Amino acid sequence: MRRHQFDSFIIIHLVICQILNICYISVTANKDLIDMKIVDEPSSYGFNNMNNNRQWGAAAAQEEKLKMRVKPSNVSGPVHLTQLAGRCFRKILENYKYEFCPFSNITQHEQGYHWNPFKGILGVWQEWEIENNTFVAMEMKDGDDCGQIHRSIKVRFLCGNTSDIISVREPQTCHYKMEFSTPLVCHPHSLLVYPILSSDLRKKWDILEGQYRRLEITYKGYKKRLEKIFQEAGLRLTLQQRQQFLQEAKATEEKKHQDRNREFYSLGQCTQEYRRLQEEMERLRLKLATYEGGNGTDVSHNSTIS
Is the CB of residue 129 less than 8 Å from the CB of residue 193? Predict the structure, then answer.
């Protein structure tokens, strides 16, 4: 274990040396460029579980901040579920820490002591999946990059005594499914769609049902018109709203690309990045120091290092 930490320490030291070298080359080659602000997304360097350590609590909270590609949709759906808005639920499952913020986003942080652990956004709240007059799942899309696609996740609600993340799986690459238990859905009618609609939309649905049963419209036409009712209720995205999400995501990606291309174009930028990496080295040095006493004993956790 100490070997991996020592390797991480050496890598950070080499990165700082490389930063200084790049700074000298970039600044001398671009003297006329305007200083740009660095958008920091510090790496935890494998210490995602440092929340349990008092020395690292504040630093970890700062490091775990992630940026969404798009803004979440408005809060919608069953009224009793809207009280979950503004809250977040955390759970560690199979070496990953998940944070579910209903009507906002879901993040995943890989735990453990190794170089460059994954941390990212699995999806941003967009719309409801609806089947047979029932809210089936929250659909969160436009998460972080995953090759040529972006991560997405669906959240299904189950009846439970407490609000808690039950499971997370990945049936397809970068497409996840989460099960979330809460007492808010224990009533048999808690996830029905029809009761939460306005009287005008319920009337439209009644007329539509009658037309379909009298065979005045096809099943395809019925589903298409029903989708429009859900869109009017703000439960599903319209084509225009989907296009807005895509445009917003594209603008975010372009800005990120521009920021990357402008890195280290000024002495101020280089100095800022150099100081940040110095702080990382100092934090890692303090962490390594806790393992130096007692032949591999971690003083802060009183556990033996294997």
Answer: no
What is the Cα–Cα distance from 120 to 64, expressed in whole angstroms? 9
Q: Are 27 and 270 in contact (CB under 8 A)?
A: yes
Contact 18, 304 (CB under 8 A): no
As a whole number of angstroms, the distance between CA 13 and CA 5 comes to 12
End-to-end CA distance of the chain: 6
DSSP states of 1-43: -HHHHHHHHHHHHHHHHHHHHHHHHHHHH-TTSPP--------
Buried/exposed code over 114-153 (b: 16+ C-beta within 10 A; e: otherwise) = eeebebebbbbbbbbebeeeebebbbbbbbbeeeeebbbb
To the question of pTM greater than 0.85 for the whole model, the response is: no
pLDDT, tens digit, for every residue of 249-294?
A: 778 777 766 655 555 556 676 777 778 888 878 878 777 776 565 4
Q: What angle do CA 137, 140, 146 make, to 5 degrees?
A: 130
Q: Which long-range contacts (CB under 8 A, 24 or more apart) does 52-57 make?
A: 52/301, 53/300, 53/301, 55/286, 55/287, 55/300, 56/283, 56/287
DSSP letter assigned to residue 193: S
Tokens 């869109």 — which residue? 231
DSSP letter at 192? B
Residue 186 has pLDDT above 50, yes or no: yes
Predicted pLDDT of residue 219: 96
Torsions phi, psi of 160, nearest 5? -160, 165
Q: What integer is the mean pLDDT of 194-216?
A: 97
**If residue 107 lies in a helix (H) or strand (E), which one and from where to where?**
strand 105-110
Looking at the chain, the whole-number percentage of residues with pLDDT higher than 90 is 50
- Give which of 146, 147, 167 is closest to 156, Cα–Cα: 167
Helix/strand/coil percentages in the chain, nearest 5: 40, 25, 35
Alpha-carbon distance of 305 to 296, in angstroms, equals 5
